[in-house]
Amino acid sequence: MLIKVFNKELEYSRPISLLNILKQENIEPTKYICAKVNNRLRELTYEVSDNYSVIEFLDLNDRDSMMIYQASLRYLFVMAVNAVFPGVKVIFNYSISRAIFAKFEGSNFILNQDTLNLILKKLKEITESDLPIIRKNFSKEKAREIYISEGFDFKINMLKYRDKDVNAYQCEDYINYMYNYMVPSTKFINKYEINLYSPGVLIQYPRAELEGEIPSFENEMVFGKTLKESNKWGVITKSSYVDKLNHTIESNKYRELINLCETRHNNMLAELGSNIKNDIENIKLIAIAGPSSSGKTTFCNRLRIELMTKGITPLMISIDDYYKTRDEITNFEEDGTPDFEHVEALDLKLFNDHIYRLIQGEEITLPKFDFQSGKRVEGQTIKLEENQPILIEGIHALNDILTPSIPSNQKYKIYIAPQSQLHIDEHNPISMTDIRLIRRMVRDYKYRNTTAEKTLAMWPSVRRGEFKWIYPYQQLANYVFNSELTYELSVMKKYAIKGLEKISNNSEHYITANRLLKFLRYIKEIDEKWIPCNSILREFIGDSIFYEE
Length: 549
Prior knowledge:
By secondary structure, the chain is of the alpha+beta class. It is about 35% helix and about 20% strand.
């Protein structure tokens, strides 16, 4: 049996676990979280048995590895709570500052620094004890018994949507299912920050984009408020958990849910329109930014129409028309290609000059970027009317480097992203990033004839751009528009699964594809015919009133 690892080939006469390979190479196992074995993600307890295998051990610089670490940390946190305060339930949500928010439910439980200290003391005791975390297969009936004894209500409800046994994890007497691979023992979890954050606690963990370091805490007030409202929305729609969403669909109430979600977007647009109208004498520039697949294009069109109903017709200017030529770009990617996402790929001086002169009442001739020739050509000549704001949209729109000549009080900044708080169960929230990835995958196939595999290949680069150029500026927003539609995965499911199932298990992207497939298959499908033609979702699935297809 031949194994290629660490740029050398090793020969073994019998199957060997990944952990033992590390030990034989005199490498501290906790340096790694998991490994790719022939492009398949494997836990460190996995035994390699093929005649020839290529192994890549993954540390916290890798996103899949980081997700395993995060899931294992959640697992051990609930274990610690269960040991110190039996009967107290923990519910996780994604939260501000790239962290997990945990809230507690228990009739006699009071959260304060003293009770948190008891939990943290137990958690430290667990992580320093090097206790094995063992994957075990349970029948659905046995899993139900375990979940009932632990009070895991939503895990019980999700069992009816499984057609297989349950692979749960056991550490001493504690058993839980975390919808993810796990680290092999408790000592692998040695880096976290947990602090009170009313009305619960905030759990920070290492991030792949920070090379395995914990991000510094940022109290993102505007963003946090939106997430809090999203939690309330889940209660209103009775769809904050997959089993509740499925129940809504099975009860034939999904059309009502669609209308609720779309009306919510209408209400936010009306609120935005009123905010802008009430200060239109000061607002000269409306800037809109958000990460990939947030629904920015549809949102801009709908906001423009909303403002028109209030007698305001914004002038839309495309930031993309201010790109420099390829030869003028001086910032490059790691592979030597021009970095078109860099803010200095834009002609900042010209853009700022044009915005300033327009606001001063001058007439200007806009550029038009010809993407075929890679050069700017002359566009239309324009002049602003009285109280007519300029509307711009793009990844750099909230960055003041674009418009340093315009005072802050004359700018109204909007950040848009889907801030979903949908859960598989109480311990497994669905990633907001995964929702955007599914949107992107569906749209890429629909409009760009791009396979799911190619979308997955591009996604890491997209994410790097978001962390560099979008997230640092989200707190500058005057308004956060939550483009989440609670029902959307039920509509996009059929498109996403069709593309994901085409990805071979030999592909380097199979790991992500398989993870997405696992939770999409839990969700009941609904017919897209009920989705309004101006819905943000139409930007991804097609038949939008704003596009000619």
